[in-house]
Design brief:
The protein is α+β, with helices and mostly antiparallel strands and 406 residues long. The chain has 14 helices and twelve strands.
Length: 406
């Protein structure tokens, strides 16, 4: 095999791999993109079938003689598709047929026919054992008694350029004229509807405090287990690490009883203080600090530096990838926490709601407006997505460096 053939095969194989990866990436991204686009739609557009990706608004136009702009629809006139405005809806039309020839039907507005014999003494005819009312229907200048076969509702469509041209057809089956339109005011509306602004502030405050608290305790605990020597250090660390295997559902009841005893129920402190200690973060920092050369610490100790000075001035600046990894994981966990806030915060106490609780309440309040629900979901999803994207480089660097040093 020559070099050109080898390069061509390699190029095609790489192209195929990138195509497969891109295809599955788009599949994974599609629900998020559809949620984001739906959050900019109007309620009627969210119920359209088949669903459409981009939001659309019905086109309207001002017509002389009408106070409000009228919606545009496509109608077929003389075999040509034209744009007409809907001037009037809910116009009732009856389908009538002679008793002796039910196959030959004619359509008339209900206002154009009258009961045969008058409203008080309307005549009837027996068809298949049932009495059917007769109506006087004018056909080709002759009034013929007919029965009403069916009834439907149509709309009156007029030419905006010439209002004298009118067409009647079913409004529900008519295709409206639409254009792509975005509604960012949905986000303002959803914030005002469910006090989502307060919930967003509470979530940001709780998340920042939990992230800072876990970083401080993880860094101090990880450094102590990695560098300080004290009796039972390894045994204490194993037991502390073993708490990771305890399911959270087993901690809910005793933790709730503790919060009741302290008096922290229905308070934001209950969402912060119990979660600033983490065995996983301590383990992550310990494993990273172990890889740090001891010679540098020994040299710093000989120069008179304290343990805290070594930690904050030497080790931490070199531990940015591990710290960023821990901060990213903690941020995602604290931001998306739902079970514990649902247990400890009263649903009626909206001033202490976090985003997950506010969205749970919004699901019921805005059940008929999915666009607002998805706007609230976008508000909850976008911040952690941005944090993950920004911290991804440090996360990958941390994994790569740990793999090389391990």
């Amino acid at each position: 095999m020559n070099i050109k053939s080898y390069r061509l095969i390699r190029f095609l194989s790489n192209l195929f791999i990138y195509f497969i990866l891109t295809f599955f990436a788009l599949i994974m991204l599609f629900p998020f993109l559809y949620m984001l686009s739906t959050s900019f739609k109007i309620p009627a557009d969210t119920f359209r079938y088949p669903p459409r990706m981009f939001p659309r608004d019905p086109a309207v136009i001002e017509v002389e003689g009408f106070e409000k702009p009228l919606p545009l629809y496509y109608v077929v006139v003389d075999g040509e598709r034209r744009e007409y405005v809907l001037a009037q809806s809910n116009i009732r039309i009856g389908v009538y047929a002679a008793p002796d020839d039910l196959a030959a039907t004619t359509e008339r507005f209900l206002t154009e026919v009258k009961p045969t014999g008058g409203a008080m003494n309307q005549q009837t005819v027996n068809i298949d054992g049932k009495d059917q009312k007769l109506f006087d229907v004018e056909v080709n200048g002759q009034v013929i008694p007919m029965i009403q076969v069916s009834q439907t509702t149509v709309g009156e469509f007029i030419d905006p350029q010439n209002p004298e041209n009118k067409v009647y057809q079913n409004v529900r089956l008519s295709e409206p004229v639409e254009s792509i339109g975005w509604h960012p005011e949905n986000y303002t509306q959803v914030i005002e509807l469910n006090n989502l602004g307060r919930a967003l502030t509470n979530t940001a405050l709780v998340t920042i405090l939990v992230v800072l608290g876990q970083l401080v305790t993880s860094i101090l605990g990880g450094y102590a287990f990695a560098r300080l020597r004290f009796p039972g250090r390894d045994t204490v660390f194993v037991f502390y690490l073993g708490t990771i295997m305890i399911p959270f559902v087993m901690l809910i009841v005793p933790l709730y009883q503790l919060m009741v005893l302290i008096g922290w129920t229905d308070r934001l402190a209950a969402l912060v203080i119990p979660w600033i200690f983490t065995a996983y973060g301590t383990f992550l920092m310990r494993q990273h600090f172990i890889t740090f050369p001891k010679e540098i610490e020994e040299a710093a100790l000989l120069d008179g530096a304290s343990r805290l000075q070594i930690l904050y001035q030497i080790i931490l600046p070199a531990s940015v990838p591990a710290i960023a990894t821990q901060a990213t994981f903690t941020f995602l966990y604290a931001w998306n926490s739902f079970i514990w806030p649902l247990v400890i915060i009263n649903v009626g106490n909206e001033k202490n709601h976090v985003l997950t609780l506010a969205l749970n309440v919004l699901r019921g309040r805005a059940s008929d407006t999915p666009n607002l629900i998805l706007a609230g979901a976008a508000i909850a999803i976008i911040p952690p997505l941005i944090v993950f994207i920004l911290g991804q480089r440090f996360f990958v660097e941390s994994v790569a460096s740990s793999g090389v040093k391990g």
